[in-house]
Design brief:
Length: 312
């Protein structure tokens, strides 16, 4: 995988900004890395990655951290609001400028405000990768999700994908929907009205020729799907707590809910799960979510290596 002008020095702030060929390039390289066709260990030796996580994170932070270290980079920054000066009110702007002064070569930013990653990208010339901004986007998670789908089916075209849960406030679903709109897929948004996908997402999908269907209940579509993407209700992002009370516990994906599912169905979840996905699914062939999470490491290695031109 030689340096690519498509990726060299670029920001990753929205899944809308990537074309099919670019997603495919990342997916192919991730598959190669997983199959040990080549290694990226140490390709970015001497570089510094600043991971600025203004919101809590488990998988995304640690996969970026391990990926950076395997690439040979040093890692600085913080994994959440505690343990940093954010609690004293330090701004995103000042934080980025400061780490730039320390010699950061790449930024990975997670923030509760929408547009935060775009803003960070505007104030530094170094590449910025969004690790989630507000309820809008989580582009690298979408890449991880595509990888998990391709790993299960060997393809993305021709699949029927259902997205279930908090599509309105969950940033992973909108990014995945944008990413999937580059492929020949059928998308169904399954959510109660209050949590249905935001109109601007559906609009962009339609413009790209993928008209999403909408359903309220999983049982009406369960038998038709190839992929079921389950998401958590974003309690912390729903503005009105009484709204949360109304929707919490409205759905739970368990074996009973999957009674009519095709045997080949794959269930994905960006994790963390709360009570929307029963642990009894874990031991079945439907469960693809731990494979999905594991893909986050090689994929983020590939992405940072392409952006920083590490070669191999
Ligand atoms: C998600 C996130 O932070 O948006 N987690 C992740 O990165 N895998 C999903 C969530 O918090 O529900």
């Amino acid at each position: 995988m030689g340096p690519s002008t498509d990726f060299l020095g670029r920001d990753v702030v929205s899944a809308r900004d990537f074309k099919r060929e670019q997603f495919e390039r990342i997916l192919r390289a991730t598959e190669d890395l997983e199959k040990h066709r080549g290694s990226l260990d140490g390709t970015l030796k001497g570089k510094l990655a600043a991971l600025l996580f203004f919101e809590p994170s488990t998988r995304t932070y640690s996969s970026f951290q391990i990926a950076s270290e395997k690439l040979g980079m040093k890692v600085t920054g913080f994994a959440g609001p505690t343990g940093s000066s954010i609690t004293k009110g330090e701004t995103l702007h000042d934080t980025v400028k400061m780490f730039e002064g320390y010699g950061a070569d790449i930024f990975v930013v997670r923030h509760s405000k929408m547009g935060a990653a775009r803003f960070a990208a505007e104030i530094t010339d170094k590449p910025v990768i969004s690790a989630g901004d507000g309820s809008r986007e989580h582009p690298t998670q979408a890449m991880v999700d595509l990888h998990a789908i391709r790993k299960a089916f060997g393809k993305i075209d021709g699949l029927k994908v259902g997205m279930l849960g908090d599509l309105r406030y969950g940033r992973t679903s909108s990014s995945l929907a944008y990413a999937l709109s580059n492929f020949d897929v059928e998308i169904t948004f399954i959510a109660p009205e209050a949590l249905q996908m935001r109109p601007e997402v559906s609009l962009l999908l339609k413009q790209r020729g993928v008209t999403p269907k909408k359903e309220k209940a999983l049982k009406d579509v369960a038998g038709k799907l190839d992929v079921l993407y389950v998401t958590r209700i974003q309690k912390e992002r729903i503005p009105d707590p009484t709204e949360f009370e109304k929707v919490k516990g409205m759905y739970e994906v368990n074996l009973e809910a999957l009674r009519d599912a095709k045997p080949s169905l794959k269930v994905l979840h960006p994790l963390p799960r709360v009570d929307e996905l029963a642990t009894e699914v874990d031991g079945t062939d439907y469960a693809q979510y731990f494979v999905q999470a594991a893909g986050g490491l090689p994929l983020r290695m590939v992405l940072m290596n392409l952006i920083l031109g590490g070669g191999n």
